[in-house]
User: Fold these one by one.
Assistant:
Number 1:
Amino acid sequence: KTKNQKTFTGSKNKDIKLIKRLCRDNLKYRYPKPTEEVIERIKKELGLIEKKDFISYFLINWDITNYARQKGYFYVGRGSGANSIIAYLLKITNVDPIELDLYFERFINLYRENPPDFDIDFSWKNREDITQYIFDRFPNTALLATYNTFKYRAAVRELGKVFGLPKEEIDILSSAKMSTSNLDQLSRLVLKYSVLIQGLPNHLSVHACGIVIAEKPLHNYTATFVPPKGFPTTQFDMVVAEDIGLYKFDILGQRGLAKIKDGLALVRDNNPSDDIIDIHDMRAIKKDKVVNGLLRTGKAIGCFYVESPAMRMLLKKLEVEEYLGLVAASSIIRPGVAKSGMMREYILRYRDPERRKQAHPTLQKIMPDTYGIMVYQEDVIKVAHYFAQLTLGEADVLRRGMSGKYRSRDEFLRIQDKYFSNCQKIGHDPALAKEVWRQIESFAGYAFAKGHSASYAVESYQSLYLKAHYPIEFMVAVINNGGGFYRTELYVHEARMCGALIVPPCVNQSNYGCTVKGKIVYLGLGFIHSLDRDTARRITESKWANGPFKNLADFTERVHLGIEELTSLIRVGAFTFFKKDKKELLWAAHHLLNKPVHDIQQTKLFATEVKDYKLPRLTTAEYEDAFDQLELLGFPLCNPFLLTEVPVVNTICTKDLPAYLKKYIDIMGYLVATKDTSTSSGKRMHFGTFLDQEGQFIDTTHFPPVAARFPFTGRGVYKISGLVVEEFGFYSIEVIRMQKISYIPDPRFGEVGYMAFGKKHFGNRRKKSLNPPKRA
């Protein structure tokens, strides 16, 4: 029996009255003119929720999200819970199940014994406060534990310590790159026993998102421990919790919501006269032509769930330009559909109405919106129920199996036998039945509920709206929240492509994160690798409290820091507003801080005058700034193609690829991202993402022979040779050869060496600023 908290108000009757009142109060907000279909759906769901005794579960989730709204926190209710109109009315989710024809029985049905499962995402900045609220609000609450088990590396390391092996030997053994014939007896014993303990529990950790709220104190069921997070945590995992009747609430944290909220705040600060749209007004955002234009062309860097190379490719192939298309794309990109080969088939049917006629009539009837192709978990359930005439209970077993939640492989196999037996009785072609089952199997562990995809698509649209209308502010919010799929460097580049002027961190203009003023983006002090977080905080607080810094002496008087940190600030360009060369500032810094830094600092009551020595004129070598930025920020702010040892001649760029279709070309690209994968035979291959000299993407495929012979050797500029190919309007290069181009010698290691090499190399090139032209 379920051991979750049984009532929200203390009385089941009061719970029923409360949930009905909340539905009535919010009906006009969600449906200004509710239809008969809406009213009937509400009655149907309320009846089933009451019958299954799930009302308290809905009300507890409502209470959590209501608290978040009162605090101004953004959240996304996702998963199969988005299939419920009651969840939509209670504002737990933001997806209209009527609009999307969502299958409520996927969420709750008469055969379901365990409570429904809401996944609620909060901003990573607010999640801790939400968790604290839940513990304060509900007395019998605990986090769920998870068991970390021994894998090869951990087992070898722990046993190596037990046997007293030196660290060097443990490192060799754990790397698995050694010949067993050369090992001594102790090392052989380590490997022998490591095999025996692999898969056994190593230590307890905290579940990524699971919280249980029980009717009785948790110590009725388990002892608890308090991990560093500071909340009581069970000593069993979610599987055991379900076995005894404790079903979890999923409270997750993500950065996408913080990007939207921070982006809106930056928009208000940087554009005070603009009327900002309600970001939750999805009816207006879905119809926005600029937003849909970005979607169609795949220009979604920084936007939630749609920025990866694979998603960018899919959007361009599908030419999606509406919400429902994005909902499908969000699920099609999952490995299940791609693995079955149905992603390509879906693209063909999406683009060609004639191709849709090839679908089996029964499958076309079951899944008209996806042209007879299984895309969502609901589709698999529908196919099992209508195509193979499995019961809804058996279909639910199938659902749990394909989502990776089944307890028994035998149970899954029994359903498989029943599927084929039924197909034979119905008279389906054996080849068709086998093909449909192959597609069902490919979903195992990867399928999305349609409501889940729809929830993700809402957040994608919100971020796309900001990217479409306020790109600079949005990209700054993305950078300040840790980026996303790519490194920070690409988001800085994208901000520049959107028209921003990027400047180095500045002690007078930057905060810990980036700041934006008009179209000028000041990188944050927190991006300087060697600057302590506490130092960055003191700089910001001093600037806010006492105004901007007047000179270097004023800065060192107000902010206590060591010579190493001050040197890093100077080298990265944080004092360029003083209009002095970096070398002059470095001399001045050593003069000002020629004394040891004490642990306890005390601000002086009166400022002390410091003698200003006159230095000879000092200058910084060309591109020395770029190498300082590479060291301190991790990337240069100038065009990286200007730093190559061999001058890069602008010949072929991404826009020229259609003219070279099915031809071999050489193209220069700056490496952005790589993806390693395996072929069906287990050989390693890669996909690459580069930037051309105009800042546009180059997509490459590296098949196993090429991947083995020409591996990636870190970020930088590469000369790529390969065949230009095209599929559904998306151009890429099948690489046959690749060579990394070395950078020029570091000019900081000697002016003489640089002048001898650099001037000869660059000739009469004019000195480039930190901000090359927009398309550079």
Note: Residues 285 and 461 are 7 Å apart (CA to CA).
Number 2:
Amino acid sequence: MRRFTTSSAMGVVLLCCALFVPLATAGPVESDPAATEMLNLGLRGVYFVPNQGQWSDADVYYGLRSRGLDVAFRESMLTMHMTRETAEPSPDREGVVLDARRETPLADTRGSSGESADLEHLTLTVAFPGSNAVLPIGAQPQTAKFNYFVGGEGRETASNVPSFGAVIYEDLYDGIDLLVCGNDDGVLKYEFHVAPGADYAQIRIAYDGIESLCIDDAGNLQINTSFGTLADGAPVVWQEDSTSRAHASMNRAREEAVFAVERDAPLAHTRGSSDQTIPARFELCGAHTYRIALDGPVDPTRELIIDPDVEWMYYLGGSGDDFGTGVAIDASGDVLISGATTSTDFSGRNNSNHGGGGFGDAFLARLSPAGALRWMTYLGGSDEDLAFDVAVDGAGNLLVAGATASSNFEGRNNAYHGGGPGGLEGDGFVLKVSATGLLQWMTYFGGTQGDMGQSIAVDGAGHAFVTGETNSTDVEGRNNANHGESEEALVVRVGDSGALVWATYLGGDMKEYGAGIAVDTAGNAFVSGATDSTNFEGRNNSTNGPQDAFAAKVSSSGIVQWMTYIGGTGIDYSQGIAIDRAGNVLVVGSTSSTDFARRTNESHGWLDCFVASVNPAGSVAWATFLGGARDDEGLGIAVDATGDCLVTGLTDSTDFEGRRNWNHGGNDAFVGKMSPSGSLQSMSYLGGIAEDIGFGVAAAEGNRAYISGYSASPDFEGRGNAHHGGIDAFAVKLRLADGPQLVVNATCPSGGPIQVSWSGATRGGTIVLLYARNTGSFRIPSGNPCAGTQTGLGSNQIQIAYQGSAGPSGSRTVNSTTGPGACGGYLQLLDVPTCSTSNVALVE
């Protein structure tokens, strides 16, 4: 997504909005008010290349090439030339959108040469009225080189042409720089960087080549073109504490790094955390021109910022209260969200609310990968219904689990069992919905007391496995006896047509519940939850305290294989479970135990989130505390394709370990990323000024994650639509942090110019470049920020080479000179706010 960074004399303002939804399509682009992506170029990385004669237009100084899109950077403006296939291509060029083997024109003011009858063209110009006349400058050098050997009229061949990760227009407006950059997935971003004393109100953005501009009811900018209507998501702004930092303008991005011996120099303090949102909106200044306006006061001591990792956030709901609980991703990349709603006017609904008190109806919603709501379906009957989780089978059907007090649940294929107290006063349920949102069947499970389904997983045959809890001693389909007189954990298997296969009680003579379930390729089910019982069936260890979390393995036929207690002498409970590539079981939950068995670190506060790894034989391998000084709860867990673990939940801590951004206010949702060995790699707060809770997490390709939950915040970071009122369900797509990366280009062995570039650091935070003559292992000594952090440098003559701002986007390039003595040594970046380190880079 694009981010505009602006500032007044009182402080720095970062404004977030999106320019376009993806354009490289064969048909018109639909208006998508929820989208906050910019141009998805379809590249693995974004490369800005200087014009060394390979493009005939001498007014183009840098270019960016993609299938169906060229971007040309000119004096104080940029031009985008888009190409798509016509509806009826000629027979000899059928199916060709853009011939990548030949050199097509780079976004001339007209389509000019190279156009063909079966391609449509659209040229848009983005200008900045009232700006200064400035030329673009390449920044953030990349390792990629390009060769241009085609030549042609007015063009020259060029070889070994360098590439850059960003283009800067310095002093585009007085005191304001424009930065254009991109990420590894081809998403182009714009940022305005405004120096103290400059006025952000100077900025104007004007389009040429469009039909009209308008602002919809949700505050999104609608850009009408001959290729369709493009959407620019409403800007999002908040203000963060910056009393301990000097604001660096883009003009200071080239200040020198001095290789000085500063062994005892203290590191800079981390930033404050009492953040506040400020309303912002688009404002039209003419038929084709707009600006970004702020509707709230700016604290002169605080900075406004948008977390750059959020790609989009979408509120789901209506005028009542809406709660998001589960999330899943289908094979097409669409996102499925389950939950409960009291709204009869839920946005995107394809049927009517069934009625009922309490939580009202269960619901299921489907969103596109770009964050557009495709449909929403009410599920239930005339009483209270609640969906807790969703899963996707191999055919793309959606399986939902929950609890219901409705005896007339729509689509039912069996009879309601009744039920008394125990969560909802009723039955658990499993149902199946088609990919288009049509209910296929619904099955009640349980007995004559209260029953509930909390989590669902699907095996390769399309069978659904559900865990939850029950008060019923007569659960239908049971293959064993209830163990106690109170609540018992339960596992149920349902066939692909909705027939109950079996039900298994899990537990001992005290209370327990099942909260998470996962299925392996052999059809075994793994269940997590909490128990008060010391005699849990199948146990292979002893209890640690009055309430333990647990993990259990159940065979495909419903037989308990093993059960493991997880925890310490306090209160421990689990809410989710996942299986990694090695067959280890990962359990997430919350704990008040400071002596958690197999822990790898220390407790942060009274209530911590925890993640524990249980090996395939049922033994706890490690456990990691996650959190800060206040309460932190883990509610959802997933494993990505690389084996990293993703965790979500809620936190009241403003000092959450590993944080890459800052608390938005009250309880925030969060997402953390951990290595397969349990090391925390990053953590991001998600939310707004009120309470926000993350319940479900799903891992996606490209180091992405989807989070579901609910929010009372009308200003949720990255939002692409308006809050509906009360409590809304939400879905968030974000790019997970990879940690800082460092690139060094030096003149060695003689010494001279040196260029140090980094990316992935905390946006606007403090970084320190450490230098040593050799690699090894060195821990930062006590008395310094990040004390105990292990670097990859040897302790021989380690020194601070440079410290300063990471830059507003967490990426920056510093140029300097150095003598020959620096050659052969090593640099490593320390990101002070997160205490994370970069790769070790050789000075060569």
Note: The longest strand covers residues 164-173.
